[in-house]
Hints:
single chain; 288 residues; MetI-like fold; two-stranded antiparallel sheet; 13 helices; membrane
Amino acid sequence: MNKISDNRAWWLVLPVFLLVAFSALIPLMTVVNYSVQDIFGPGQAYYVGTEWFKEVLTDQRLRDSLIRQFAFSGAVLAIQIPLGIGVALMMPKSGVKGSLCLILVAIPLLIPWNVVGTIWQIFARGDIGLFGWAINQMGMDYNYTGDTLDAWLTVLLMDVWHWTPLVALLCYSGLRAIPEAFYQAAEIDRASKWAVFRYIQLPRLKSVLIIAVLLRFMDSFMIYIEPFVLTGGGPGSSTTFLSQTLTTMAIGQFDLGRAAAFSLIYFLIVLLISWLFFTAITHADKEK
């Protein structure tokens, strides 16, 4: 006997879907309109076709920002995903200790982005900041306001501190969803901790890790507030990522045409790479 599906619940979701689509469509149409016009003022716009896209794609400053962005996002994923898994594995499974760990781990996620930048701006100072002062006391010449490498690593460390808890909480929820029977069978077979992780825990975390990778890539690829507050994009342009370059172009220089074209390319890059990540991970999961 065939089961009759009831899709009436979709009518409850439809108003929200239409509202979100409408609120996203109008700004997108405006950006597309600006990307093919040269705007001199109210009522003074001239069609230029793909001129702005050509200029954006040949702009060396934007290429440098793109390289820095890819390097930063790659480092974020390489550090935060394994670290988040490790933190989740060390957290207690239940009880008061488990609840306390969940609260402590989630604290960085509750702090607003601009406050995170301000905290690290003070924390990493070499004169009054605990982190900067401690590094200098070890004999290292640390100065994130004057050294390019120090600034880049400080931004990376700040992001790791702020967002690794998200990965840890996602992995923790995935680990708690594994039936206890799997662990009992592994104990009977005298499997090592590595074998339990390799053959039981990691395969069961794949769906959670897909979400974690996608979220962290998209967030890190669009990072703006934290490095802007911490370093202002400096020293030089060492921590000027794509979002800051776009903001400077659109607001600082009021170059709306090039900024619109750049934002569309920016959007397509994020969309394409997220799709590649999702496709690659799900395809590998299906093969197994």
